[in-house]
Design goal:
Length: 333
């Protein structure tokens, strides 16, 4: 089987010849592993099953001050500590300027250049990635505390902001799914380590109706639907299945019972992630890493429905020997 065929089989809840996998790295972890292998090109030889095409314009990000970068929505990110994402340090949208703040053009040719080039010949499963897709886009523009407060005190404004984001997203989905991609990945972190940031009632009021529209737009194009949402959000699995979700990521074992939810939802939902980035990779031993990965492959990967991966891009404090042990098990299936 090709990697594309493996992922598609897993999403159909069929057993592929081996469990597909995809390993991502933060900048620090990548540098550590390049030194460990003495090979800055080691990622090309990992055998990752998935390739992502970003729908955001990477070249639109620009440095506006030392350590401060600005994205195409005008949000500024302080990367003096977190080199991978950063911390929002401005407020783009206010109640007063909402109607005047421009959004990016979803049809900008530069956005679609990677899609125009096609999938290539490596047989990977192609995912179009729409990050910061709703709640995250809203709070990065308006402020986290402002948004959460307004969800209670100013619902008309929150609905207007989310609807404007939704309109942009649906235009992106329509264009992305016209290309030869296999799935659409929405990024939208709803969870903390203990539960939903906004709680289930507000999630169902504001987020769910718009999520349903986005997911159904993807499914109408014959593509699979993925979501990346960090934290303990498993109480939403029935809602997400109802909305049309195919695959959930990052599947964090520290906050979700990965074996339990596989048993409960495995006939309706696939999972992508599951290898501990908060405990085992940084603090375990190579033997513990090998045991954990083999258990996930054997139990969560049984009868399909699983794409093995670290529960997030591997953090910089993960031990190189542990990362190497994980790679070894995944490659030797």
């Amino acid at each position: 089987m090709t990697n594309r065929e493996r992922v598609a089989a897993a999403l159909r809840h069929e057993q592929p010849d081996r469990v597909p996998y995809c390993i991502g790295f933060t900048a620090k972890a990548y540098e550590a592993m390049a030194a460990y292998y003495d090979d800055p090109g080691f990622v090309r030889r990992l055998g990752n099953a998935i390739t992502g095409f970003r729908t955001g314009i990477v070249a639109a990000w620009r440095e506006v001050a030392p350590g401060i970068v600005q994205d195409e929505f005008g949000v500024q990110w302080n990367r003096t500590v977190d080199k991978d994402i950063g911390v929002v340090c401005n407020q783009v949208v206010t109640r007063e300027n909402f109607d005047d703040v421009p959004f990016p053009d979803p049809e900008t040719p530069q956005r679609w250049a990677p899609f125009e080039q096609g999938r290539g010949t490596d047989g990977q499963f192609i995912v179009a990635d729409l990050g910061f897709s709703l709640f995250e886009r809203a709070w990065t523009l308006y402020g986290m505390e402002n948004l959460l407060t307004a969800m209670v005190s100013d619902p008309s404004f929150v609905n207007a902001l989310l609807d404007r984001i939704l309109s942009y997203n649906l235009a992106v989905v329509e264009r992305a799914c016209s290309y030869d991609v296999d799935a659409m990945m929405f990024g939208d972190d709803w969870g903390s380590q203990t539960g939903l940031i906004m709680g289930p009632d507000l999630w169902r009021e504001y987020i769910k109706p718009r999520v349903r529209k986005m997911y159904q737009a993807v499914r109408a194009k014959g593509k699979y639907v993925f979501i990346h949402s960090c934290g303990k959000v498993d109480e939403l699995f029935p809602d997400l299945i109802e909305c049309g979700l195919d695959c959930f990521n990052p599947f964090q074992p520290e906050v979700i019972d990965v074996l339990g939810v596989k048993r409960q939802y495995g006939a309706q939902l696939s999972f992508y992630g599951g290898i501990s980035t908060q405990k085992t990779l940084p603090y375990g031993t190579p033997g513990q890493v090998r045991d954990e990965v083999r258990r996930l492959l054997g139990e969560v990967g049984r009868n399909g429905g699983y794409i093995a991966a670290p529960a997030h891009a591997i953090p910089g404090d993960a031990k190189p020997e542990n990362i190497a042990s994980m790679i070894e098990v995944l490659r030797e299936q």
